[in-house]
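Need a sequence for this fold. Nothing fancy.
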């Protein structure tokens, strides 16, 4: 992950696409791969259409990039209905020319079960030994004080 590939769109504008991560999310009858990509224009703006991303199983060394499942916008990325295993993700021009391709191995596809959603909070130890916390403090912290001195969880 973190691979960056440069490309030039059909209007001659330079940009890069970075694959920041890939994860599996469970659906009722299967799982889908959600790719987190970032597009950076070298100068000005480059339009990127999620529907021009494609994904397919990468079976063997000779896979035709640009074929496969069409990407669709999803929360925090682009989703593909592809089986588990090594996957080739491509970004294609409107005429079908492959502009960018990434190979995603199974080990880098974080399963949804491994994702933990931690609440945003912070704590520092108070002078009396009771932590001073702010934000969305979980119950597992136990007794703490807010920054304005209110005792919580007593």
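Here you go.
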């Amino acid at each position: 992950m973190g691979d960056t590939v440069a490309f030039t769109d059909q209007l001659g504008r330079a940009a890069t696409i970075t694959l920041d991560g890939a994860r599996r999310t469970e659906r009722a009858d299967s799982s889908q791969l959600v790719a987190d990509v970032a597009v950076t224009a070298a100068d000005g703006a480059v339009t990127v259409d999620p529907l021009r991303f494609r994904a397919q199983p990468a079976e063997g060394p000779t896979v035709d990039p640009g074929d496969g499942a069409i990407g669709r916008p999803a929360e925090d990325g682009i989703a593909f209905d592809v089986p588990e295993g090594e996957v080739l993700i491509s970004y294609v021009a409107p005429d079908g020319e492959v502009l960018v391709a990434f190979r995603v191995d199974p080990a880098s596809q974080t399963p949804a079960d491994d994702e933990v959603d931690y609440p945003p909070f912070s704590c520092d130890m108070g002078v009396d030994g009771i932590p001073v916390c702010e934000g969305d403090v979980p119950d597992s912290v136990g007794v703490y004080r807010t920054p304005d001195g209110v005792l919580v969880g007593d």
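For context: The longest strand covers residues 14-26.
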